[in-house]
Write a structure and sequence with these properties.
alpha/beta, Rossmann fold, five-stranded parallel sheet, elongated, binds ligand PQ2, binds nicotinamide-adenine-dinucleotide
């Protein structure tokens, strides 16, 4: 039996430097906006839809998200890096996807894996440490449960280790290779109990 492998390549985007458009303002839009801003409160986002849920408007206000109350238009893809479509019209979602592809924009049609250039993942954040989880689009529920599991088991003070090593690395003398060796020697006990 051949085992499937996840070949997606994860990256950690500086969304404060990117222009993100969310098409739609309903339940799914709120869910995507919530996870996006939870992980990246500094994301630069605009939302376009004729109708917005009250909770979406509240969340948007909290995170300086620009609200545009009208139907999606092609011109709204100008000067955009990423577009996420969440409308209840498969036709509109498909159009967003096709226009985005033409412009080489990264596109996610929420909950429609075949119309996604990337997937949103489960995300665990502890200070400077962030873990992103994907099930290759196969089981969002598993991604959510794994996220909850790692939120529990990763100690809140994991960031102290990062901060301390960041300080320590500034004090080490020597060339690049010596520094790498010192840092590796210093931390090897973290994974090898012997
Ligand atoms: C991780 C997370 C992030 C986020 O949403 O930002 C995320 N989905 C989450 C939850 C969730 N979504 C759904 C359920 C109900 C259970 C279920 O239906 O399975 C639950 C669970 C729940 O809510 O309990 C519905 C759903 N989602 C997709 C489909 C279509 C399909 O699978 O074919 C359907 C069916 C729609 C329908 O019935 O029509 C598809 C996608 N959802 C993804 C991401 C991408 C793959 C991620 C991966 O590789 O694992 C992908 C491919 C595209 C995308 O949307 O990016 C977030 C958890 C965040 C957290 O808690 O930390
Ligand atoms: N609610 C869920 O949890 C859920 C789960 C799985 C699948 N879905 C599916 O996802 C889709 C969206 O669900 P929802 O609950 O967010 O719907 P919703 O009715 O809450 O929101 C739909 C949004 O799309 C907007 N919209 C419609 N036409 C538009 C256009 N031309 N341009 C811009 N925006 C437009 C509406 O104004 C509204 O803001 C539906 O097809 C639904 O069946 C929803």
């Amino acid at each position: 039996m051949s085992q499937e492998t996840n070949t997606l390549y994860p990256v950690f985007l500086k969304v404060r430097n990117l222009q993100v458009l969310i098409v739609g303002g309903g339940n799914v839009a709120l869910e995507k906006l919530t996870f996006l801003t939870k992980s990246s409160p500094d994301a630069v986002v605009e939302m376009v839809a004729p109708y917005f849920r009250e909770e979406t408007l509240e969340r948007a206000k909290q995170y300086n998200v620009k609200i545009t109350k009208r139907r999606f238009r092609k011109s709204m893809l100008k000067k955009r890096h990423i577009v996420i479509a969440t409308t209840d019209s498969p036709k509109v979602n498909k159009r967003v996807y096709e226009l985005a592809r033409k412009r080489f924009l990264l596109c996610n049609i929420a909950d429609v894996p075949e119309l996604c250039d990337f997937y949103m993942g489960g995300i665990v954040t502890k200070g400077n440490v962030k873990i992103a989880i994907s099930t290759n689009g196969k089981s969002p529920t598993t991604a959510k449960r794994l996220r909850q599991f790692f939120e529990e088991v990763i100690p809140d003070n994991i960031d102290d280790l990062v901060q301390n090593l960041n300080e320590y690395r500034k004090t080490i003398k020597g060339d690049f290779e010596e520094k790498v060796e010192t840092l590796n020697e210093f931390t090897k006990g973290l994974i090898n109990k012997n």
